[in-house]
Structure formats: structure tokens, C-alpha cells
Design a protein that fits this description.
The chain is an alpha/beta fold.
């Protein structure tokens, strides 16, 4: 199939010039097939390989609709993807459109968000918006569901599924544009959405897939490509870099990603790389290791990195300033970052319950699909690493010649249903058992199976919500009221806060314990939430954790369990609470990283989650125990900055983070006003400041004149500031 010129009947003539500004002069065949359906207002499922132009189809649908006065929503699975899509859609604002992004706290609704013509958000945020503003959902005319195949994901899938079913319930005429990887049962998703299916294996860059074994790449057609050199990964990387390409290496663990990058940086001899322009005094050992690699043209990428460093890696790779990245699956599932050669080194993962097993075919195909940069590479190569001749043959059959797994709904589990059924009842979407049955019948689960197959799980979920006071039911005999459901104030608050019902129950138990809430007790109640990702426990953790439990047990608002299974989970929660407590006690990131075996990104992710959960806990205090609101609020303020109470005034100064605030305090500057009254020369000599920062925070220049910059207005806004 040949590309088609950028002319489509019915396309608003203001759109093509902007698309040409991206260097696009022709439509790819899948785009040319899908866009006419989109312009006709039909639902469409576009199931094509990575880099085959799915996003452009979605953008045209959203912008075309917005130019006609129709509101659009772009749903993504990850915050990082939201930022990418938001920035690209902003190109169309020259047409007079307003493009917005909402990925913040799940229970907070930004003022004026419904004034946007196009809103980019995650599925969880969109679900929360619907719980608060049902009318907004019914006003949407075009909805894009990106990476819709993730419906099969245990964590994210049910929310995407319920969200799409709910949007179609609110507005049966809403246009759904679903974007998917190439999957075996895309026809099922299109059937569920009453959509036209555009399915293709076409790629703008030829993909050559093979298996590396004994210093050569074996391709399914019987051809081979020799790879000179003794070390496998460095040899594969050097070969493609010498040919003018870049390389991505996917490995199974963070430690492997770091070790692989260090090895590549030391052996490839790439010369000049990138210098990371960030404040060195804020660095931890992990970032210093990355900086060393970056300066040699190589990087590693995983969720343990601070977001600033992840952005440096991504932008430097796109610019061609670094030639090779070793990464964990966080990169494969997220940012659009193609390379000429993709190497899948680790194809197995270990599960404590099932042992070692090969990765899903869909995941490997998606990662391999990143091989080949349109307009830059003559081809893309995806290389799987075989450890024996037999395994090489198996990998070809499984991943190269085989098909990906079917996408299966994960909605039919009681923990998932518990959360979503509460949202449906509390929002008024399902005011009875019959209404719940009717709604479930519109889901992808019901499209694939019989609804009765989940009836037992639904009953368990409803019983949980009824027994614990989230919802109530009218058991009257009159047919028009029998089975009527409504949320209690407790249930409504839980739904609005977008927390798990178990989280809400734990909060209630903690607040009704009668104990005076100390910081550690509050943080343990928070860490016991299913909404918090708990840390893992190692054997060497046990002794120190149990010692700390003994010291803190009287402060805990929830009891220490006695049975071994529950106790193991309790220790994970307690370890997580301990990390958060050490953070607000100003333990440095370097020490936190060593003590808890986490990266800066992990610390920040948990701190951000803790801020949201502390806000929810404070809101719940209004229902059960007003007296605990103040202590919770105090911990929340400290959590945002990672400081003790005494530094809160100082960290509100712009350009002053936790380290500089402590330095100021030790020097005798204990309030924001005392800093402002000081001379910049006095501040500049303090460690970690200097003339430029001193002038900013005092509002004075070294010559005594006032600066024009507002220095005390906003302070540290995010954990990633300063």
C-alpha cells in the first residue's frame, strides 16, 4: 500500500496546513482508511502497529469535532503520555481552540476544566470527573481511548472499561475513537463499541525481527547477520550505532538497567554525550551514576529515577545526543521513543507463586514495535536474545511468528467491582440492582461472557458495601421501590474522594480508636490503604522493622495483627509508613534510597500518593472525629515539603527547598521575614546558595536595590522543585 496525499473529503481545510507543519505531507494507508469513518462520526477501532500513525487519526477526530463546537476527551493510561498528547494537541490552539490537561489529585476538580474544547486526562481522572460532574460527561461528543487494549490490564483495565460504558450510557451518540496495538481479537472490542475496525500490519518502516545467538542474528526467513565482538549487548549496540542508528535495550530489573548502561558507557567509547543541567546539591547516588553514563552517550531509564532525569534521558535520546538506553518495561509501556534497533534481553519474569515464565507476546511485540524511526531509519530491527539453539527456535515461534494473546476483560473480580459499584451507586448512575444489571450488560465483560458468570462476585461486592455502611437498600415490597440503592454520606464521601472502600474503612477504624493521633500512627493508617503501593520486605529488614514496631506500637491507630499472613502484610505497610515518616523528619534522599532500597522516583511517587491520601483522611475526619483533623493537616503540610514543622514557613519561600530551609534555620534565619530582612551577601555565603539565589530569595540585589521578582509568593510548589 502506498501513502495517500493529505486530502480527505469533509476534512476542515484549516487542519491540513497545521499537520504539514509537523512534516506530514501524506497519510499512511491505515490513516487513509480510518479518517473517512472518523469524519462521518462513526465509532472506530484502529488496531495497527506502533508508529503507524494512530494518534493523528485521533487528533483529526477531536479537532474536527471541536471546530464544529463539539467537546472532546483524550483518555490515556499514563500521566507521561498525557503530557505528550497535550503538547501535540496544543498545536491546534491557533485555530481558536482551548486544549487542557487534567491529571492531578483524583478527587479534586479544577475550576473551569469544562471550558476546554479538548481535555487530555488519564482514565482514573476522567472516571473521577464523571462522579462529580455527570453533566460534563453527557456533553462530550468525541472520546479517544488510547491504548484501549490495556482493558486486559488487572490494574487499569476495569477503570477504562467502566468509563467507556458510562460515557456511552450518558450520551448514546458519543463518538468513540479507540486506538490499539495489533491484537488478535480487535474485532471483539470493535463489536462491543459498535465500531468500524481498521486493522493492519502496515508500518512506515520495515521491521526485521530476529534472534541473537552465538554472535549472529537469525531471521525467520533463514538469513543471518553476523555481529562482531565478544560481549553480546555491547556488540549489538556498537554495530547499529556504527551504522548511524540508536539502540534500546530492554531488561527485567532496575539493577540490570543500571549495570547494562554502565557497561555500555564504559565499552562503546562514544565520546561526548550530555551534561545534565540540574542542581548537583539535590543529587543522590543513582543520579550521579546516570550523569556519568550520560556524559558518555549512554543512559538508563526506570521508575526509580526522578522525573527531571527521565525527561533529560528522553529528550536527549530524541535529539540524538545519546545513542543507547537500557530500560525496564516502564519505557516500553510509556513514552514514544523509537530506535533503529530494539534488543529484548530479558524475556522471562519471575513470580513468587508461579515461578519463571516467558513475557506475554503482546508486551514483547509492543516493545519490538519501537524499532525503526519514521523518516530517520531505513528499517527497524527487533532482536530477541536466545541462550541456546533450542531457545532461539522457540523464541521465533512464540514471539516473531506467533500471535498476541486475546484481550480479556478483568472487570469480574470482587475487589474491582466493589470500587466501581460504589461509584455507580453514589453518582446516581445505578440506583437499583436492576440498574446495575443493566449497566453491567453494556460492558466489555458482558460482550465476552454471560453476565451471570460474575453474579457471585457482584453479590460479594454489594454485600461488602451494604454491611460496612457505604450504601443502603430499600427492601420494600412495592415493585417500584424494591431493590432501590443509595449511597450513605460515608459512601458518597468515599466515592467523591476516589479512594478504595477498604481505605475508607481503615480510616474510620483509625479515627474511632480513641488514641491521640501521632504522625507515625497517621502514616501507618495511610500506608495500610490498597491505594498505596507498599514496599517489599527482605530478610534483612525483619529485625530492624520489628524493633521499630515495638517502639511505635502505642502510637499506631490500627492494631498489629497476630496471624502470620496478615503480619507479613502489616510489615510491608509499616515499612512504607516508616519511609514516609523519615521523609517528613528530613532524612536525605541518599540515605532514604539506601535504607529502603528505593530510587528518588519511588520516594516521590509514594509521597505524592501520601499527600492525596492525607487529604482524603482529613476529609473523612469530618465524618468520624473532628479532633484528628488538625494533626492530619499538620502531617499533610510536612509531607508536601519533607520537613519538620519548624521549617514550614521557610520552604514557602520561592527557590527554597528542604535542604536550603534547614541551612537557613541553622544560620539563624527561622522565618520568611527574617530571610527577607537579611542582606543578600549574608545569604550568598551559606552552603547551597550563591549570589543569584540569595538575590532571589531576599528580593534585593547585591548593590542594595530591590529586585523586581516576587520572592516570597509561592515557595516550593512540587516535590520536584529545587
Amino acid at each position: 500500500m502506498e501513502p495517500t496525499k493529505l486530502v480527505v473529503q469533509g476534512l476542515d481545510p484549516r487542519i491540513p496546513p497545521l499537520i504539514r507543519g509537523w512534516g506530514i505531507e501524506e497519510l499512511y494507508p491505515p490513516q487513509a482508511e480510518a479518517i473517512p469513518f472518523v469524519l462521518e462520526g462513526k465509532n472506530v477501532v484502529v488496531a495497527v502497529p506502533t508508529a503507524s500513525g494512530k494518534s493523528l487519526v485521533a487528533y483529526i477526530g477531536l479537532v474536527q469535532g471541536a471546530l464544529k463546537g463539539n467537546k472532546g476527551l483524550y483518555i490515556v493510561p499514563l500521566k507521561a503520555l498525557a503530557q505528550e498528547k497535550y503538547e501535540e494537541l496544543q498545536s491546534f490552539e491557533v485555530l481558536g481552540l482551548k486544549v487542557g490537561m487534567s491529571v492531578g489529585d483524583l478527587d479534586r476538580i479544577e475550576e473551569g476544566f469544562d471550558a476546554y474544547d479538548i481535555l487530555v486526562t488519564t482514565s482514573e481522572k476522567a472516571d473521577s470527573l464523571l462522579r462529580h460532574r455527570e453533566r460534563w460527561g453527557s456533553s462530550l461528543s468525541v472520546v479517544v481511548a488510547d491504548e484501549v487494549h490495556l482493558i486486559h490490564d488487572d490494574h487499569r483495565g476495569p477503570t477504562m472499561e467502566v468509563l467507556l460504558a458510562r460515557l456511552r450510557q450518558l450520551n448514546p451518540l458519543v463518538q468513540i475513537i479507540a486506538l490499539s496495538a495489533t491484537i488478535r481479537n480487535a474485532y471483539e472490542i470493535s463489536g462491543w463499541l459498535d465500531a468500524k475496525l481498521v486493522e493492519s500490519d502496515w508500518r512506515p518502516v520495515e521491521l526485521r525481527e530476529g534472534v541473537y545467538f552465538q554472535h549472529k542474528i537469525i531471521f525467520p526467513n533463514g538469513t543471518e547477520k553476523k555481529v562482531p565482538g565478544e560481549e553480546h549487548i555491547p556488540s549489538l549496540a556498537k554495530q547499529i550505532i556504527d551504522e548511524g542508528g540508536q539502540c534500546l535495550v530492554f531488561v527485567g530489573t532496575r539493577r540490570s538497567a543500571e549495570a547494562t548502561a554502565k557497561n555500555l558507557a564504559g565499552t562503546l567509547g562514544l565520546g561526548k554525550g550530555v551534561r545534565a543541567e540540574v542542581a548537583e546539591e539535590e543529587e543522590v547516588g543513582l543520579h550521579k551514576k546516570l550523569r556519568w553514563c550520560l556524559e558518555r552517550g549512554v543512559a538508563f531509564h526506570h521508575a526509580g529515577l526522578d522525573s527531571r532525569y527521565r525527561r533529560i534521558v528522553e529528550t536527549s535520546f530524541k535529539a540524538g545526543d545519546i545513542k543507547c538506553i537500557s530500560a525496564t518495561p516502564t519505557l516500553a509501556a510509556g513514552i514514544n521513543l523509537p530506535a533503529r534497533r530494539v534488543i529484548m534481553r530479558d524475556l522471562k519474569r519471575y513470580d513468587p507463586m508461579t515461578g519463571s515464565s516467558y513475557l506475554p507476546v503482546l508486551y514483547v511485540k509492543q516493545a519490538c514495535g519501537r524499532a525503526g524511526r519514521p523518516h530517520l531509519d531505513p528499517y527497524g530491527e527487533a532482536i530477541l536474545m536466545g541462550r541456546s539453539e533450542a531457545e532461539a527456535e522457540h523464541l521465533i515461534e512464540l514471539y516473531i511468528l506467533g500471535e498476541s494473546e486475546d484481550i480479556i476483560s478483568k472487570l469480574g473480580r470482587e475487589p474491582v467491582l466493589r470500587r466501581h459499584l460504589l461509584g455507580l451507586v453514589a453518582s446516581g448512575a445505578c440506583p437499583s440492582r436492576n440498574a446495575i444489571d443493566d449497566f453491567i450488560s453494556t460492558t466489555f465483560y458482558a460482550h465476552q461472557r454471560e453476565v451471570w458468570e460474575m453474579e457471585e462476585e457482584m453479590e460479594k461486592a454489594l454485600d461488602y458495601l451494604l454491611d460496612r455502611g457505604f450504601i443502603e437498600e430499600d427492601g420494600g415490597e412495592e415493585e417500584e421501590v424494591a431493590g432501590r440503592l443509595w449511597a450513605t454520606l460515608f459512601g458518597k464521601r468515599t466515592s467523591d474522594l476516589y479512594i478504595d472502600p477498604i481505605t475508607a474503612c481503615n480510616y474510620r477504624e483509625a479515627m474511632e480508636s480513641g488514641k491521640e493521633p501521632a504522625a507515625m500512627g497517621i502514616l501507618h493508617a495511610l500506608a495500610s490503604s490498597p491505594d498505596m503501593i507498599q514496599l517489599y520486605i527482605t530478610k534483612k529488614d525483619l529485625e530492624s522493622l520489628e524493633e521499630r514496631v515495638a517502639l511505635c506500637e502505642e502510637e499506631l491507630l490500627l492494631p498489629v495483627p497476630e496471624d502470620p499472613a496478615s503480619y507479613d502484610q502489616f510489615l510491608r505497610e509499616f515499612k512504607t509508613a516508616s519511609l514516609l515518616h523519615d521523609w517528613i523528619e528530613e532524612m536525605g534522599e541518599e540515605e532514604l534510597s539506601k535504607r529502603y532500597a528505593v530510587g528518588p522516583g519511588d520516594i516521590r511517587n509514594r509521597v505524592e500518593t501520601a499527600r492525596w491520601l492525607l487529604h482524603a483522611m482529613e476529609a473523612m475526619a469530618g465524618l468520624f472525629n473532628h479532633s484528628v483533623s488538625s494533626p492530619i493537616r499538620a502531617v499533610a503540610r510536612r509531607m508536601g515539603y519533607g520537613v519538620k514543622e519548624e521549617l514550614l514557613d521557610l520552604v514557602r519561600i520561592r527557590n527554597v527547598g528542604r535542604k536550603r530551609a534547614r541551612t537557613l534555620w541553622k544560620a539563624g534565619y527561622t522565618t520568611a521575614s527574617s530571610v527577607k530582612d537579611a542582606g543578600p551577601k549574608e545569604i550568598a555565603i551559606l552552603p547551597g546558595f550563591g549570589i543569584r539565589i540569595a538575590e532571589k530569595i531576599t528580593g534585593k540585589k547585591m548593590d542594595g536595590k530591590e529586585t523586581t521578582e516576587e520572592s516570597h509568593e509561592k515557595g516550593q510548589q512540587r516535590l520536584t522543585d529545587f
